[in-house]
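quick q for whoever's on today - can somebody do inverse folding on this one?? i tried earlier but teh output was garbage lol. tokens:
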């Protein structure tokens, strides 16, 4: 957006029209920073940039992009401050591995019964002639 003179003029004109219509602020997204600078200088209302360069009055970086919780295409203007997607992917892989190897759940993650309950239940099951299902 705004990469030709006609497109840049249209962005400036549209921003001025929005201000004249009563907008209290304008979000400028994915436009050249030079065009954002011109728009910001021309308007009395604040400009908020998301991929529009540092001269806007404020900045937005979507939370999921900021913490790296996005999968797929990352816009040019995104700076990741963490790799939460990598942490989550690693956690899911470790969990699946532990389930497959039967390391999870361990005794620490299981509820227990009072003494004798398991033995009585197993004895009742044996008396009923129930067979253990194969795993």
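ok took a stab at it. sequence:
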């Amino acid at each position: 957006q705004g990469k030709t003179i006609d497109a840049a003029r249209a962005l400036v004109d549209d921003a001025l029209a929005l201000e004249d219509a009563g907008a209290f602020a304008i979000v400028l997204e994915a436009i050249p920073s030079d065009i954002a600078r011109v728009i910001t200088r021309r308007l009395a209302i604040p400009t908020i940039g998301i991929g529009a360069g540092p001269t806007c009055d404020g900045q937005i970086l979507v939370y999921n992009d900021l913490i790296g919780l996005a999968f797929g295409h990352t816009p040019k203007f995104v700076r990741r401050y963490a790799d939460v997607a990598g942490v989550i992917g690693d956690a899911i892989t470790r969990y699946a591995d532990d389930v497959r190897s039967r390391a999870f759940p361990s005794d620490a993650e299981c509820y227990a019964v009072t003494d004798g309950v398991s033995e009585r239940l197993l004895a009742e099951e044996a008396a009923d002639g129930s067979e253990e299902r194969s795993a």
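fwiw The mean pLDDT is 92. also The longest helix spans residues 84-100. so keep that in mind when u check it
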